[in-house]
Specification:
The complex is a heterodimer of chains A (435) and B (140). Chain A is built from 13 helices and 12 strands. Chain A is α+β, with helices and mostly antiparallel strands. Chain A has 2 domains: 126 residues, Porin; 248 residues. The longest helix of chain A is centred in the N-terminal third of the chain and has 28 residues. Chain A is elongated. Chain A starts with a helix and ends with a helix. In chain B, strands 1, 2, 3, 4, 5, 6, 7, 8 and 9 form a 9-stranded antiparallel sheet that branches. Chain B starts with a helix and ends with a strand. Chain B is elongated, with a radius of gyration of 20 Å. Chain B is α+β, with helices and mostly antiparallel strands and 140 residues long. Chain B has a single domain, classed as Beta Barrel (Lipocalin), CATH 2.40.128. In chain B, a hairpin with a 4-residue loop joins strand 1 and strand 2. The chains are: A alpha+beta (435), B alpha+beta (140). At the A-B interface, strand 1, strand 6, strand 7, strand 8 and strand 9 of A face strand 1, strand 6, strand 7, strand 8 and strand 9 of B.
């Protein structure tokens, strides 16, 4: 009996050891592993001056070492390795949050990082250093989830062949990042023109005047548009079409591909600087493919309801406002006219498809102060191309990670926007008891 | 029995005196106001943070906590309450991962007697991270 018990016990022990031996390598190889390359950022000197951190090809390879440490398989420098060794990590919602304090000679570093499977963001505060603050990001790939990929220690990233991506998704003219726009420019222009023609013909059938060249209203829009177009991403583009419609509405709209329309009611209310800002705003909707990027809005509407779709257009409007200020200044008009213009428009206190009027006015006031230095009064600035490449409000840096584009950023912004909208609705509901 | 009560009374008195002494020796209160700050945006650009004139006040509770006495609002209160601090040389360095609604923020602070540098990582959204510098003074 005793002998039998011992045989069974030894058998169980051996089985347990065997199972452990089999499972251990699986667990070991399942540790998350990332390869990250710097996507740039900035450092700040004591007096507040910021210096750009260059983009780097040197890969940092990290492997999570349970429970809360990160093993450094490759690092660009010894200090980077020491920083990671000092950090403790925790996982929340699929993201890894790391913090660490490192004393290096007279310097004391406090480092924070948020790491995901596609990128990381980090900040560092350094006491005793002439540049005491650093903030930057990295593009990352998860290595352990790719069966055909091994950790490429000190192997520079291969330049990606973008021909396939270029075929299905063109780069945003403003940010240089990818957009979910499946149409080429010719088709966009044709569709935009067809839409505009259809709208105009509808008005004509109703007996509403559509102004022609030689009419004062048309010529006013033409003169302003020529300068705005010359100061825009469409400077070298031909065939931009606009219509001026004799309606009292204070409105304007874009139909995509370089087509837009202005109502006479808005023209009567606006001076030339204000009208220039409106035309620039509509032109940005065209340049940024806001009309063409309808698919995400349809998806959002179906998946998350109308409020998500509303938030999506709200973000587009903010982008149009921001870029329009740069166009307006570069065309020689006063970008701060965008503030006075808001006071002439019907006031909206709520965030809907457009930002609320007070927020637009405040944001425009803040931003116009930054871009008015680009203005050469009365004429198009000679620095259009240079300023459009990089200015106080946006930068065309291309896409170092070409699978992530401006659209996805926009969608992320949309999620935040939606939360804000929901909060505001909740407040409204509580305050007024409405729906 | 009497001896036991005497012992308890003496112990309570002794500990009370000790606590008063410790608190007095390590109580540190700061008043801070915004100096400057910038964001790091997803597109690599930066934006200046708008200026304010508000003074926030907080008190260090050894060994690792900060008591918010006066803040800009509930969000700052929550962040300060969740921060875990560590004295390093002449500074206090704090870190926390804070969940506010659907957002999860990684927050750090380096606090000296003259300045506080706060960093917040959003990672997602239009703003990747922000850095804020505050002028601080110790209130005795």
């Amino acid at each position: 009996m005793t002998k039998r018990f011992w045989i069974i016990w030894v058998g169980i022990e051996l089985a347990a050891v065997f199972l452990l031996a089999v499972l251990w390598p699986i667990n070991a190889s399942a540790a998350p592993k990332w390869e990250c390359t710097s996507a740039g950022g900035w450092s700040m000197a004591i007096d507040g001056r910021r210096t750009s951190i260059p983009v780097s090809d040197v890969a940092t390879v990290l492997e999570l070492s349970a429970p809360d440490k990160m093993g450094v398989l490759n690092a660009g420098s010894d200090i980077e390795r020491k920083i990671y060794q000092s950090m403790s990590w925790e996982e929340r919602g699929g993201k890894y949050y790391g913090h660490g304090i490192l004393r290096e000679g007279a310097m004391i570093l406090s480092v924070s990082e948020v790491l995901t499977d596609t990128g990381s963001t980090s900040t560092a505060t350094i006491l005793g250093h002439e540049e005491p603050v650093w903030a930057g990001g990295s593009d990352c790939v998860r290595l352990d989830q790719q069966s055909n990929l091994q950790a490429t220690v000190q192997k520079p990233k291969k330049k990606q062949d973008d021909s396939f991506l270029d075929a299905i998704s063109k780069r945003d003219a403003i940010t240089g990042k990818r957009a979910l726009n499946f149409q080429d420019d010719t088709k966009s222009f044709q569709k935009g023109q067809a839409a505009l023609k259809s709208i105009v013909s509808g008005y004509r059938k109703q007996g509403i005047t559509v102004f022609k060249p030689g009419d004062a209203e048309y010529d006013r829009v033409k003169a302003i548009s020529e300068r705005i177009i010359a100061a825009s991403h469409y400077a070298n583009r031909k065939g931009i079409r606009f219509e001026v419609i004799d309606l009292d509405d204070k409105n304007a709209f874009a139909t995509g591909g370089g087509n837009f329309a202005v109502y006479n009611g808005l023209m009567k209310a606006a001076n030339d600087d204000e009208l220039a800002y409106v035309i620039a705003h509509e032109l940005v909707h065209n340049v940024a493919n806001h009309v063409e990027e309808q698919l995400p809005m349809v998806l959002l509407n179906a998946k998350r309801g109308a409020s998500a779709a509303i938030a999506y257009t709200n973000v587009q409007e903010q982008e149009a406002d921001k870029v329009a200020l740069v166009y307006t200044a570069l065309a020689g008009y006063d970008p701060c006219a965008s503030v006075s213009f808001q006071s002439k428009m019907p006031i909206s206190l709520w965030e809907t498809t457009h930002p609320s009027t007070p927020r637009r006015a405040i944001t425009n006031k803040f931003n116009c102060g930054k871009v008015k230095k680009y203005r050469v009064p009365g004429k198009v600035s000679p620095d259009v191309q240079k300023v459009l490449q990089c200015n106080e409000l946006f930068c065309n840096k291309g896409g170092s990670n070409s699978t992530v584009g401006g659209l996805f950023e926009l969608l992320t912004d949309t999620a935040e926007k939606q939360l804000r909208l929901e909060l505001e609705r909740e407040i409204q509901k509580r305050q007024f008891g409405g729906n | 029995m009497k001896i036991f009560f005497k012992f308890i009374t003496i112990s309570v008195l002794f500990n009370s005196i000790l606590m008063c002494y410790v608190n007095d020796a390590s109580a540190k209160t700061w008043q801070c106001s915004f100096k400057d700050g910038w964001t790091l945006n997803q597109d690599g650009t930066e934006t200046s943070l708008s200026k304010g004139t508000f003074y926030g006040t907080r008190e260090y509770l050894p060994p690792d906590r900060m008591l918010p006495l006066q803040t800009h609002g509930p969000m700052e209160t929550q962040i300060l309450e969740e921060m875990v601090y560590q004295p390093v040389a002449t500074s206090l360095i704090g870190h926390a991962v804070v969940e506010i609604g659907s957002m999860t923020l990684s927050v750090s602070e380096t606090l000296t007697d003259k300045e506080s540098i706060i960093t917040v990582i959003f990672h997602d959204g239009a703003t990747k991270a922000l850095v804020e510098r505050n002028r601080c003074t110790r209130i005795e």
